[in-house]
Write a structure and sequence with these properties.
- It is a single chain.
- The protein is an alpha/beta fold.
- The chain is 31% helix and 18% strand.
- Among the domains are: 193 residues, 3-Layer(aba) Sandwich (Rossmann fold); 117 residues, Immunoglobulin-like (Sandwich).
- α8 packs parallel to α10.
- The longest helix has 17 residues.
- The protein is globular.
């Protein structure tokens, strides 16, 4: 039997991916030969051994019988080929598809997605995803459970780190970029993998920022904000979707027929498949919409969930449900058709095995490390830099480095780091020591304190060492296990005794900078008021330490921008720049007006606004021009502006376009991002940036819930953040 399987594989390997025969005809032929049990097997995904990457004995046995369609966490060319050979021994020889969480890199780890969004560069994000796809495919992975495109406006939610922040326009641009990077034009290519849009839908709006929690929102907000990145991913040709853990307006995502069959598969004509999240089908019982396993299977199958991850209620109850006509056979066939379609598009029927020699050349190559370095540099956001504290002055000879995170390899690459190994990561300490040696600077490292209080905390030793330093650098923030899935925080202040550490260091009165390593905005009011320089590096990945060192010493200039509004206090949450106005906004001419929508104790505004970020240079935006004063409903208008580097070093700026329609059939946001461009300019260099606004940018869901452009005045701003900027306007006429 094994010899026959090998000969079959050799014959298939000689064919081009998804060769001449029409995919749908091939699927028809396979479906006609399948038993109901085999169909349900295609709809089953089970876990492998995470540590070894190998299949479990159960999975291996099911594969030989053709009773399993997919695994997660089985990886490594040798492991995947072994399991695939077992699948090719089955009666119909349907190949398996191997999934894995390739979120921000496979072996070469890139900055976390929130940091990648801070680049405001779809080109960089696409390149990151392409490297991740190339490494993953060389290890036998066909399918990543990424990108996560949940809009997140609440930093308490730990998974804010996995997405692109609060804005649907930026989120859509990053979603498209990641799909292009992972899949390319043909995800059957040997360096591409199928992508997965998650979590469908509105998972990022969980009440109280608590993971897995309930979501309740209007259909207008859902469509206008939370679904926009998902629609962009569909338009880009994404292969698969994943359901969320949340319930939306009382109906869990794993059983939401309106959401999945109605919008995704119906309105949007999505023809890939939808996989549940980990055991979320069985969890319908806890949600209270299913009485038992069989009932959970019924509700999820009727809701349009095509593949079940890890739990087994489909396999154990599907035959009886079809027999009892509680689930239609055509719905089973539709789910299997979608799964087979993706497998064929991935080239698995024609080339089920991976070349085991590729891992040696693709994994952690110098080229891949270089891409991770460039991405990290581009993602850093300079929040504050009074008196040009950074870059580190040339006269510095002794520098103190403090903070546990400065030498934390695990936090450098963060959670959901694929198969990244902490020992491969270059920490801030390691990067600084190497760079400082070239500059003749002596680095003294004192741990001081970290995110967790421990007996090793020695703030007094750090304070004493600060007295002898010419320059002080503190690395503070959150451990990797404080962000990501199941890491919601009710308090977003700096954890542990880290604030005490920074205060003790600042008391020395020396030039000082703080480097923040974290996966969400944290409360840093004292730092903003008292520390002259703050650099946000998020979790920077494999090459993070080298990138940080080069930016701190001025070899590179930071140019990232915030993809989230940074709150002053937890009481402002949820906070986001593109909010609606109220009937009683704070009057510009009466900032102390009591009877306005305001707080008694703090301003409404964030500590740092969306789109904000400084540089080692200065930029001037001028010459705003709007190409037409009036356009028709289906017309377009061009907005141009000039940006000039006014400083003495080459640096990046992100020019941003915002709009607002002040009067409409429904209240519209005070500003909305509708364009951005990251430019690199030499000293004194000037460039014109151009943005086009048309129906795609100007339309919204109006009073009638139709997505259309309404006539009226539109204001435009071109700026370097969501605040201020040059202002213009135009009229959309009937």
């Amino acid at each position: 039997m094994k010899i026959i399987a090998v000969l079959y594989a050799v014959a298939l390997a000689a064919l081009p991916a998804c060769a001449s025969q029409d995919i749908e005809s091939r699927i028809d032929d396979i479906l006609s030969k399948m038993t109901l049990e085999e169909k349900l097997g295609q709809m089953q995904q089970l876990d492998g051994n995470y540590d070894s990457g190998a299949a479990t004995p159960e999975v291996m046995g099911l594969a030989r019988k053709g009773l399993i369609g997919s695994t997660l966490n089985v990886r490594g060319a040798k492991n995947t080929n072994e399991l695939q050979r077992a699948a090719m021994e089955s009666r119909l020889k349907i190949p398996m598809i191997f999934g894995f969480d390739v979120i921000h890199g496979y072996k070469t780890v890139f900055p976390v997605p929130l940091a990648e969004a801070s680049t405001f560069s779809p080109k960089i994000v696409e390149e990151d995803s392409a490297v991740a796809a190339r490494e993953a495919r060389s290890s036998g992975v066909h399918w990543t459970f990424a990108p996560m495109m949940d809009i997140a406006r609440d930093p308490r939610w730990g998974r804010i780190v996995e997405g692109s922040g609060e804005d649907p326009y930026l989120g859509s641009a990053m979603a498209r970029a990641r799909v292009r990077g992972f899949q390319g034009k043909d995800y059957s290519a040997p360096d591409k993998i199928a992508a997965c849009a998650k979590h469908w839908a509105a998972y990022g709006a969980a009440e109280a920022g608590r993971d897995y929690n309930t979501v309740d929102m209007s259909e207008r907000t859902l469509r206008q904000v939370y679904l926009r990145p998902f629609k962009a991913a569909v338009d880009e040709g994404i292969a698969t979707f994943m359901g969320g853990f949340d319930s939306l307006n009382g109906i869990p995502a794993s059983a939401n027929e309106w959401l999945t069959r109605g919008i995704l598969k119906g309105e949007w004509k999505f023809d890939g498949f939808v996989v549940s999240d980990y055991t979320s089908v069985k969890e319908l019982i806890c949600h209270g919409i299913a009485a038992d396993d069989a009932d959970a299977a019924r509700v999820a199958l009727n809701g349009g969930m095509d593949m079940e991850m890890v739990s087994k209620v489909y396999n154990e109850n599907g035959v009886a449900l079809v027999k009892d006509k509680l689930v239609a056979k055509k719905d089973i066939d539709d789910a299997v058709r979608r799964i087979l379609r993706v497998k064929m598009r991935a080239g698995l029927f024609d080339k089920p095995y991976v070349d085991e020699s590729l891992e040696k050349t693709e994994i952690l190559s110098p080229e891949n490390r270089g891409a991770a370095y460039r991405s990290a540099v581009a993602s850093f956001v300079l929040l504050k830099n009074d008196k040009n504290t950074l870059p580190i002055p040339s006269g510095v000879k002794k520098m103190l480095l403090a903070g546990d995170l400065a030498d934390d390899t695990t936090s450098t690459i963060a959670s959901w780091c694929g198969d990244g190994v902490p020992s491969d990561a270059i920490t801030v300490l390691r990067g600084l020591v190497a760079r400082a040696a070239r500059a003749g600077v002596e680095i003294k490292y004192v741990r001081g304190a970290g995110p967790y209080v421990s007996k090793d905390d020695d703030i007094a030793a750090a304070a004493a060492a600060a007295k002898d330093a010419d320059f002080i650098l503190a690395v503070v923030g959150e451990n990797a296990d404080m962000t990501g899935e199941a890491t919601s925080r009710s308090d977003i202040s700096l954890p542990g005794r880290q604030l005490e550490l920074v205060q003790a260091l600042a008391a020395a009165g020396k030039p000082m900078a703080v480097v923040l390593m974290n996966g969400r905005p944290v409360e840093i009011n004292w730092l903003t008021a008292n520390v002259p320089a703050i650099l946000e590096i998020w979790y920077p990945g494999t090459m993070g330490g080298t990138a940080v060192a080069d930016v701190l010493f001025g070899d590179k200039s930071p140019g990232g921008k915030l993809p989230v509004s940074w709150p002053r206090a937890l009481g402002q949450v949820p906070i986001y720049y593109n909010h609606l106005n109220t009937g009683r906004p704070i009057p510009l001419d009466k900032p102390d007006e009591k009877y306005a929508s305001r707080y008694l104790d703090i301003p409404n505004t964030p500590l740092y606004p969306f789109g904000y970020g400084l540089s080692y240079s200065r930029f001037a935006i001028s010459d705003l021009a709007v190409s037409a004063s009036t356009i028709p409903l289906n017309g377009t208008v061009t907005v141009t502006a000039s940006v000039q580097n006014m400083g003495d070093r080459s640096a990046d700026e992100v020019v941003q376009l915002y709009i607002r329609q002040p009067v409409a059939s429904v209240s519209r946001p005070v500003r909305e991002l509708k364009g951005f461009e990251r430019v690199t300019l030499a000293p004194a260099e000037k460039k014109t940036v151009k943005f086009t606004l048309g129906p795609d940018e100007l339309a919204y869901y109006g009073k009638d819930m139709k997505f259309s452009v309404e006539p009226g005045i539109f204001k435009v701003w071109v700026s370097n953040s969501s605040e201020d900027g040059l202002e213009g306007q135009f009229l959309v006429a009937k």
